[in-house]
Structures are given as structure tokens and as C-alpha cells.
Design goal:
heterodimer; A: 241 residues; alpha/beta; Rossmann fold; 11% strand; globular; B: alpha/beta; 5-stranded parallel β-sheet; two-stranded antiparallel ribbon; 8 helices; 9 strands; 13% strand
Chain lengths: 241, 254
């Protein structure tokens, strides 16, 4: 499905529906890895400056259809992969990604794009060394989203699909479809599943344990680290793309 | 009773499009950079309109969604090969859904300056995976006819030098680059593009037109081929092989 990671660096990704708490967890994990002296880079879904203007206009004017929505996100991903993720992996960094191609596999398929097509679309992506999936019941996630923010956006709610005229209702149905897609691929793609209803601390402890178990020895060799004696606290913060 | 062939997708139908509603004709003009496609498309449009057809002409990178973004991205220095391929694919999907398909529904002749084949050829020339990009573009409609304006690299070079007076960064593949100056890179890159189009010519049933000749002669050839399409006889077309090589299913009228 992906191209194998032949680089020195390691790729760790988090996935889950909106409100699953994955961003909090990958942020905590990346700080922890940095504190241990590793060179850590961070990449966020849908953040390429090259594509930003097109995405913004398309969303504002509601120009996207399922295929173009899928393709512009793949373009965004390709830009981050070519300019940022791949070179940093080559250099020996640990790259932490908040959402990866699996987001497209779940969300674009929930939008009606063919499963086979979207999986092929991301074939150029580097296979993650670790993928965490934050499993959360729909109601819990929706409670977190509705409690914490004001407005749900048009595409976020899947309003382009005509599921319901009510934004909240549409959001609920759409997130439900996305959740189904995540669950359907979970065993297939080898997710490490984290129960996202547990406390933040407990989830983080599980993640760190899995990182050490799975990457343990590989973390000792090849990775770019702060030379002994130098204090990592004085290093500039890594760029986020 | 006549048999006819409606337009069809290569292997990945777009959600929400009923092919049997597409009554227009899709005609593609392909060829490498500087071969004279745009001139021919302009002349064809004029001629077809005089003949009483409604014509939509469209071309790569001209869509409302991504056209501007692509232009801006090409002005910078950070556009990667896969990113460029996917950006152009986004633009193509947008034009297909919002320009080409609506025009075909309305019975227009759609004349397109480049099609999926140019995106594929450029990707292959830059070393991307053929199967990957062919499947990504599998939502393209199989055209009624694809005219491949074929010329040798030396013809392209003389057109660039005599016509525009300078080599273009992207047409020379300087993003890779294929040589340490624009001329060398242009020659190597366009050779690869032509090779990729040649391979596709057979697979996708292009009509190859010798474009190393004067524009008038090329135009006369195109006219003759297009006359043979019998555009007035709506919905009547020869079978075309799909991207997967499988024959398209036969359908009958009434």
C-alpha cells in the first residue's frame, strides 16, 4: 500500500475521528521524544503553504466535490512529503504526523470515493513505523467537539453530501461513516489501538510503552540525536509543516 | 438499428455521473510542449462553430479551482514532481466535473488542449510510477478521438527558438533538471515526454498526426479526421479500448 521506509528516521502517526484526542497525544509524545534528545519533526494534515490558497478558496466557495476534495488533500500531502517528511526521515529525524493517509482512506471513502482508488492515490507515501488509532465512541467525540468549539464547518460536517440540512445532525452522520471506515481498516493496516476514553495520562503512558517496545532498539541506531553534553532545551523549536 | 458507444470512464467512474446522459463529443488534442496544439485548437474551434456545433474548449491548468494555485506554485522554487502531478490532476478533475461533463450533457463538442495523457507523460518523464498515475487518472472519460500531434525534439527546439525566443523553465524540466543548462535539459526532458506519449499512442488508440509540417497541412489533416467522426450523427461511435485493455461493453439504441 505504501512505499517502505528505507530511511534512517522513523515515522509515527496518529489517527482517529475529530474529538478523539489524537492531537493532544502526539504533541505530548513529540515533546517526550525531544526531551530524550531525538531530532523530532512534526507534520500536520492539510498544512502545506503551497496548496493553502486553493483549499481555502475551494472551501469558501464550496467548489469541492468528493474527487477534487480528495485530490487537493493528496496534493497537500505530497508537498509535505516531498519537501519536509522525506528529507527529514533521510536525515534521521523522528517525524510525528498528526493524521496521515489513513485520514483520506476513512474520510474520502465516507464521501463516496472508491476505496481502491484512494489507496492507490497515496501509494507514494512512506509506510509509518508506528500508527496509533484513537478509538472513541461517536457520542463521546461529538460531545467533546460540540462542547469545545463554536461552529462546525461545511466540509467538516459533510454538508456537501446532503446527509441532513442540520449541521450537527450531518456532522454526526458523517463522523459515524468515518468511524466505520477506521474500524473496518484497523486490523488491516496494523493500527495500535488506544482507548481514547481513558485519561490523557494513561493513554500517553500506553503510547510511550508501545514506542519503546516497538522501536526500542531501532531508536538506538541511526537516529539523529543531540550530542552528549549539549542541552536540548536550548535547541530552537522544530518547524511545523 | 444502429449500435453506438456512449462515453465511458477508464476504470473509476466519478461519483454521481451517469454516462448515458453525456450526448456531446469529447475530442482531445495531445502533444509535447511547443508542438502547436493551441494554434490548432483555436482553428478547430472556429471551424466547428462555423459548421454549427457548440464548442467548449478547455486546457490544462485553466480550471477555476486550482488554475491560480498551480500558476503561483510554478513561480516559486518548491514544487515537487509528485505534488505537481497531483495539482494538475486536481485541476483536471475540477474541469472534468464542472466544465467538460456539463458541456457533454448539453450536447457540446468539447475540444481539449491536452488531457490525462500529458499529465501521465510528464509524470513518467520525471520518473514517477506509470501504474500509479494511470490509476489515479482512471476517472477520466474515454475520449471519442485523441489526435496526437507528433514532432521530433529538433522541431520543438526550432519552434521555441524561432517562436518564443527563449526556453521555459518547466518545459525544459529544470525542476529535476535533466541537464546543466536549459537547452540540454529541454532536449532530454522532451525526448522522454515524446517517448511516453508514443507508448500511450498505441495503448489508448491515438490518431498520430505528423506535426513536423506547416500548420495549414496539420489543420487539413485534423479536419479530415474530424469529418470522419460524423459529428452530426449524435451518439454513434466506434469502440475504444479502455485503459485496462478490456473491450467496452456494447450497448444498443432502443
Amino acid at each position: 500500500m505504501f512505499s517502505p521506509n528505507r530511511f534512517r528516521g522513523k515515522l509515527i502517526v496518529v489517527e482517529g475521528i475529530d474529538g478523539s484526542g489524537k492531537s493532544t497525544q502526539i504533541s505530548l509524545l513529540s515533546h517526550w521524544l525531544r526531551s530524550r534528545g531525538y531530532a523530532v519533526a512534526f507534520s500536520e494534515w492539510n498544512s502545506s503553504p503551497l496548496v493553502r490558497e486553493t483549499t481555502r478558496r475551494g472551501k469558501k466557495k464550496e467548489m469541492f466535490r468528493p474527487t477534487t476534495f480528495s485530490l487537493i488533500h493528496a496534493t497537500d500531502f505530497a508537498d509535505r512529503a516531498e519537501r519536509y517528511i522525506t528529507p527529514l526521515l533521510k536525515a534521521g529525524a523522528i517525524v510525528c504526523a498528526d493524521r496521515y493517509a489513513y485520514t483520506a482512506f476513512a474520510r474520502d471513502v465516507a464521501r463516496g470515493v472508491s476505496r481502491r482508488w484512494v489507496r492507490n492515490l497515496y501509494r507514494f507515501a512512506t509506510r509509518p513505523n508506528l500508527s496509533f488509532y484513537f478509538r472513541v465512541p461517536l457520542d463521546v467525540a461529538i460531545g467533546r467537539i460540540l462542547g469545545g468549539r463554536d461552529a462546525i464547518k461545511y466540509y467538516e460536517a459533510g454538508m456537501d453530501l446532503g446527509l441532513s440540512r442540520d449541521v450537527k445532525e450531518s456532522f454526526r452522520i458523517f463522523q459515524g461513516h468515518i468511524l466505520d471506515e477506521y474500524e473496518a481498516m484497523a486490523s488491516d493496516v496494523g493500527f495500535h489501538i488506544i482507548d481514547a476514553t481513558l485519561s490523557i495520562e494513561l493513554q500517553q503512558r500506553q503510547m510511550r510503552r508501545i514506542v519503546i517496545e516497538e522501536l526500542g532498539n531501532r531508536l538506538k541506531n541511526g537516529l539523529l540525536r543531540v550530542p552528549p553534553g549539549e542541552d536540548h532545551a536550548y535547541l530552537p523549536a522544530t518547524a511545523v509543516l | 438499428m444502429r449500435t453506438y458507444q456512449p462515453l465511458q470512464f477508464y476504470n473509476e467512474p466519478l461519483p454521481g455521473v451517469d454516462e448515458s446522459e453525456l450526448h456531446g463529443k469529447l475530442i482531445v488534442i495531445e502533444g509535447p510542449d511547443a508542438v502547436g496544439r493551441t494554434t490548432q485548437v483555436g482553428k478547430l474551434r472556429q471551424w466547428l462553430e462555423q459548421e454549427g456545433h457548440a464548442v467548449l474548449d478547455t486546457g490544462m491548468g485553466r480550471g477555476a479551482l486550482a488554475g491560480k494555485g498551480i500558476k503561483q506554485a510554478k513561480e516559486g522554487n518548491t514544487l515537487g514532481a509528485i505534488t505537481m502531478t497531483l495539482y494538475y490532476t486536481t485541476d483536471f478533475a475540477d474541469r472534468l466535473e464542472n466544465e467538460i461533463i456539463p458541456a457533454l450533457r448539453a450536447g457540446f463538442i468539447v475540444l481539449t488542449d491536452r488531457y490525462v495523457f500529458s499529465i501521465i507523460a510528464r509524470a513518467i518523464a520525471r520518473g514517477e510510477d506509470r501504474r500509479w498515475i494511470e490509476q489515479v487518472l482512471g476517472f477520466g472519460l474515454v475520449p471519442h478521438a485523441t489526435y496526437y500531434l507528433r514532432a521530433e525534439v529538433k522541431d520543438l527546439v526550432s519552434r521555441v527558438v524561432l517562436g518564443r525566443g527563449a526556453f521555459d523553465y518547466w518545459e525544459s524540466g529544470m525542476d529535476i533538471p535533466f541537464g546543466n543548462n536549459m537547452f540540454d535539459s529541454f532536449v532530454r526532458y522532451q525526448t522522454r515526454v515524446i517517448r511516453a506519449l508514443d507508448v500511450m499512442a498505441k495503448k489508448y488508440g491515438f490518431v498520430t498526426i505528423d506535426a513536423g509540417r506547416a500548420p495549414d497541412l496539420i489543420f487539413r489533416d485534423l479536419q479530415e479526421h474530424i469529418r470522419n467522426l460524423e459529428l452530426r450523427k449524435v451518439r454513434e461511435f466506434p469502440r475504444v479500448n479502455g485503459a485496462n485493455g478490456a473491450k467496452r461493453p456494447k450497448r444498443k439504441t432502443h
